[in-house]
Structure formats: C-alpha cells, structure tokens
Amino acid sequence: MDEGDQVRHTGGASAFNQRRVGGTSIHITALDGITNVNSLFTLAVFLGLAWNPYDPTDGGVSVGDCAAGPHILENLVSFHVFSFASFLFSSLVALCLKQAIRLVPPPSRPLTDRVNRALLRAGIIASAIGSVLGCGFLMMALVNVVQIKLGRLGCASAATIGAIIPLVTLIPIAMLIYIGVIFYAFTS
Q1: Where, by residue number, does the polypeptide cross the bilayer (predicted)?
Q2: How far is it, in rounded angstroms, from Cα 38 to Cα 158?
C-alpha cells in the first residue's frame, strides 16, 4: 500500500488539504486582526465626534484670518461619519466571514467543498477596502482638526504644514503596505 492509499484508508488529510485548512485559519486570524484594528479606529472616531472644536477651555483654536470656517467644521464631522461607516462595514463583513467559516460542516468532506474560496476572497477584499476607506476618511478628519487648531492650509503656517505632512505621508504609506499584504493574501 503506498502513502496515498494509506492516507485515504486511515481517514487522514492529504498535504493539499492540510495546507488549505491552514490557509483558512490564516484567513480567520487576518479577519480577527481587521476587526481589532477597526475597533480601535472606531473608538478614535467616536472620540473625535465627541470633541467640541470651539470649546473655550480647550486651548489652541486658531483665530483671525487663518481661522477655520464652518465649512471645515462640516467636513470634520462628515469625514468622521464616513470613517465610522467604513470601519463598521469592514468589521461586519469580517465578522460574517468568520462566522461562515466556522459554520462549515465537520471535516468529513474536503475543505474545497466546505469553503467557497471565491466568496472568501471577495469578502476579504471588501473588508480591506472598507478599512482603507475608513483610514483615508479618518486622515482627512485629522487634517481638518489641524486646520481648526493651527489655522487653515491656505495660510501655510509652519505649524500647520508641519503637522499635516506626517499625516499625508505616513498614513498613505501604511495603507499601501496594507494593500500589498492583502493582495499577497488574496493571491496565495
């Protein structure tokens, strides 16, 4: 009896199926990571929405010609709401995927019959897109916070530019890395 017959007769899984099972546990771990990070960002969004930019006890609000107008405050709230909606969408999709993976029947059938890989990949991509959009909207909300606190971008003060440059460089770089990792997971 060769090794392949022995695996079939003993009920063990082939190396291919073991790799696929490991891949599914990797997907669950990735989905856990998405929901954990989204939870932290959602907390940041709520804190941002609770903040009153015109509170006189909260120092550092810009005044004069460089003061942020009501349009910037409207954008601040809008970007926080868009960010919250994106993170919530991403988390709900990730939680649904995790639940779907856990609801598959026991390993009496091959994994390829139990988990629809195309739907799993599409769900992971949808969840990742929600996270990336949420990060982008949160970054824009933070740019508006800087404009309220330090002055509009049109005034080009050193403090405003110095605070915004790290936001608009580091966050997109991190999002590109995240997209690269998701693309790698999608293709493997």
Answers
A1: 77-97, 118-143, 163-186
A2: 32
The four Cα atoms 41, 42, 44, 45 give a dihedral, to 10 degrees, of: 120
> Do 131 and 178 meet the contact criterion of CB atoms below 8 Å apart?
yes
Burial of 44 (0-12, 13-18, 19+ CB in 10 A): middle
pTM (predicted TM-score): 0.74
Q: Is the dihedral of CA 97, 99, 105, 111 positive or negative?
A: positive
Residue type for position 133: L
Mean pLDDT of 166-178: 91
CA distances, 152 to each of 57, 138, 159 (Å): 21, 18, 11
Is residue 124 within 8 Å of 95, Cβ to Cβ?
Answer: no
